User: Fold these one by one.
Assistant:
Number 1:
Amino acid sequence: MIDHVKKRVEELFDSGKIDAFLGLKLVSGHVVPYLFDKKEELENLSIGDHRGAGDARYPLNKILIRLCREYADKRFAVLVRGCDERGLRTLFIWNQLDPQRVIPVGIACPDELARRCECLKPYPNEFVAGEKTEGVGFSMVRRWESLSLSERFNGWMEEFLKCIKCYGCRNICPMCFCKECSLETDELIRRGGFPPEIPIFHLVRAGHMAGRCIDCGLCEEACPAGIPLRALYKRVFEIMRDEFQYETGYTDSKSPLNVGSSIT
Amino acid sequence: MEYRTVPTTCTYCGCGCSLLLEVIDGMVVGTLPSKSSPVNEGSLCIKGWNVHEFIHSPGRLTRPLIKENGSFREATWDEALDLVASRLKEIKERYGSDSIGVCASAKLTNEENYLIQKFVRAAIGTNNVDHCARL
């Protein structure tokens, strides 16, 4: 599987279409993000399956945004799974990345990962490695919905109470790209003061994820308290789909919530 | 053009969370939790997430300072260590070993902390050794 990825990236280098490839590399037994700027380096390429499927997924798109700003004249290829492709598409719409400068190198996720993620489309449109597997519905959302309103409310409050305010969900999120974050605005949250009360932060963030969250699940994986964030944002996806006919990540049109003429 | 991540261990406490320092052209610009670490399994606390911030901080001490007449001046390591050693010796001789206490740090490695308690017990001769997690 990895040889197919290497071959594709080598072709991209040879044809001069890219200056570098953002992917994963094996370093001292750890799978870590790395920018390959010549094909000879691809020897240590990894595609992330350290112990099991998806055990070493990183926010490559978020790193790519930074690299595109840092090296304004360079073109990049980037390793993408189905979720990352949804992310790229949405970041193009929000003008955070330029499609002329980014070439995705797709891999399809194994069934095990698709099921764990409950991913609707666990493969990019084009992929060079892996096999297309069935999409999986959001049963984690249905489980929450099977509870009564008060059980649901109390259940979520219990989950939010576990929060240790690391803000890792925000930090790792490839779709959190605002220059000004509510969390860092002194008028809203005083520096050095108490963090926002529960559940304010979680619900504000869930609101901000409408039209942005592409269901990669990195937030839930990064949460030290094990809060089931993915179920919350999957529900946000459903609300956007059902109420606004907008399927975040699956369309090239602007989010109905993006009312400005341009976002920089 | 360089972007790489350096696997290392968080210096903020004794948990030993693994993290990746993000390096762009030789500058440390960010932190990511290590997804393949059995210790923290891809999570960090708020301190760990921001551990890169002190690395290039202009407020960071890069040389030892010696306080003279109420203000600090820069010194060499040899001078600073000589001063600490001679003053500790003086205090020990004058007031006894138990007049000295040492606080170790969760920022040190296990081995360094071992050496500190060994130094306190064997060289200074007191059991007055503690660590920052109890402060």
Number 2:
Amino acid sequence: MPDATFKILRGDNKSSAFVEYTVPIAPGMVVLDALHYIQAHQAPDLAVRWNCKAGRCGSCSAEVNGRPRLTCKLRLDALPLEAPITVQPMRTFPVIKDLVTDVSWNYRVNEKIPPFTPRENVEWKMKQRDIDRVQEFRKCIECFLCQNVCHVLRDHDKGEQFGGPRFFVRVAGLEMHPLDGLSRTQLLRQDLGIGFCNITKCCTEVCPEDIHITDNAIIPLKERVIDNHYDPVSWFLRKIRKR
Amino acid sequence: MSEKYETREHDVLIIGAGGAGLRAAIAALAEGASVAVVCKSLLGKAHTVMAEGGIAAAMANVDAADDWRTHFRDTMRGGKFLNNWRMAQIHALEAPDGVRELEQWGALFDRTSSGEILQRAFGGHTFKRLCHVGDRTGLEMIRTLQDRGVHMGIDVYMECTITRLLKDGDRVAGAFGYWRESGRFIVFKAKSVVIASGGIGKAWRITSNSWEYTGDGMALAYEAGAELMDMEFVQFHPTGMVWPPGVQGILVTEAVRGEGGVLRNNVGERFMERYDPEKMELSTRDVVARAIYTEAKEGRGTEHGGAFLDISHKPADYVKRKLPSMYHQFRELADVDITLEPMEVGPTCHYMMGGIRVEAESAQATVPGLFAAGEAAAGLHGANRLGGNSLSDLLVFGRRAGLAGARHAKNVGPSAIDESQIEAAAKESLTPFLHLDGRSPYDIHSDLQDVMQNYVGIFRNEEDLIKGLNGVLRLTDEMIRVRVEGSRLFNPGWHLAQDLKSMLIVSEAVAMSALERKESRGAHSRIDFPKYDDAWGRQNNIIFRAGDEMKLRQQEISKMPTDLEKLLSSE
């Protein structure tokens, strides 16, 4: 089997440069296997995050040949090997070292979202058909690739005003939970800035779990926000009900 | 001292943020304690996310005849009666409440037609008992616990590794560690420490475990004077991927068999008929793992030395709905469409039944102020764990450890940590940077994986185990001069050097216990002692530290009350 050449962006938040490594290819090899090979044989301090190596934990996100990917699921035989394979950290988040980025902002956003709050005296029974769509959202492995490609975060740096696709998926999972009794539309409109999303679907394209982020989570949430905060009929009904 | 460090103070310090650690944190917070959770990875990435098949709990939603007594009996039979019977009883009694709590905190399990939590069949369980979410139950569990804990106010210290427990006299008073990101040191002062750091799978070559599973918690407890128990019982899951090489060992959930998958050898024979004609593919994991290993060894294996696991007789839609992760895993990593063709599978190191010896009710170890739960603790599973009993273990004993830790913290006065312990820990951590001619941690780790895989594997004999033990001791010697390059900033080579120390301590305990137990029971199969031995069936192997030396002794299993004993003999 031939060798593959990798160009890995190495460095910290002050300076970085591409460093080239050559790796012997094994059958079925994925990019993360190559990174491990480089650690064991050439660069013991190459910083990489990973855990399950099976596409379940969402730790090993990076940009390979410019595309955001889970390195544990990206096979070398799916890449052109004539040219070096470039591997860079996710661009949206600050670099700590090499391929490891500071994703702590995501955990701070999550803390803003009120957790599941069951309605009073609910009976703990649900039909499978009523939870199918929520189970889709619950598949999220928090790889943050959707956050990485979202132009509101990547190009416009709106992290303080915008929650990003990951957290719309999370809110959708709570809002559409059949037994949840809380409304989070105010949060979506203000703290999470759902209005900034102009539905370019970049997030959906990169989701390794194939969650239909835009169609199934963001658009229905936008509709809820509009119904609750801009639709005069529901505004009126809400007023009456409150009384 | 010369090295600077930051200090944090909490009532309860929890090491590990998987299911057990997070459940412990929630319980301790509910008692009003201030709680720190320290984890080596980012929050939500612990190995609990890899748990696929489900949580065993006798809810009786599908099989009305199920109850805790049957679950207790199945667990004891699966563990070949070496289990701590009181833990098995508590576990069976409390697991259903653990599942209900998860649901009330927002977890969404698959449903029955009447809207209850759906339960599926699994190896060794008499009834359909595993509450599940397709084949991603662990993800649902960890996300639910994570969100609950964070909103209750846990302080989470992510990407932080603990290298030593700190003591005040006999009792635990805190822990020393470093931030993986910066390499800076941190000292935790705590009245109680709960160890929930999982297992030791990374000491074997073929494993389902990630880099984190290096036996840290067991090694920390051992070094702090706690006892370890049942260390010879390492579970090899029967079905890991075997091809291509990069994915070797990755788990193939038992739910494939629970949903009707069959095992065949290279001549198309459903070979489980010869090993367990009654339970077939749903026999216990020790039996199925040995069966697959034997078929391959005797020339009836697949091209890459495994067995065929086939679910393609089920409708493709059904397979994709009930086993979506498996479908994607094989399609993307092995070019196999499991709805059309069989998978190639073989045994993979998966779980440590042994661990820190704890008291059943409170999860307290043999050192005051130290508690342990989940895979890091011993007792519940005996000689072999049933699938699904791990997630329920995390819920039941995670909760108990958190409660007991918080109550202990209320009842003890302040402690003092003398500076010399911290200084010694800092020095030990940095020494590898000073070595210019030692071996790389990656090389030592690779050698250890070969030693454990080849000599302390599924089938064992005295000659191999002696080689294994000597191999571990030789590598322990080489570790003294392990060499690390680069800076302290997020340096995986340095991180591995720290983890290797734990791996070597725990590997020594495994090899030593396996050499001592001269019988075959559950996951411990001695070719030179192939039968059960009643005398060994009445005692556990205990590992403890005497001076600088690892010692072993036997401990008689306490007598079971007659009402429980009756349950075991009934059908």
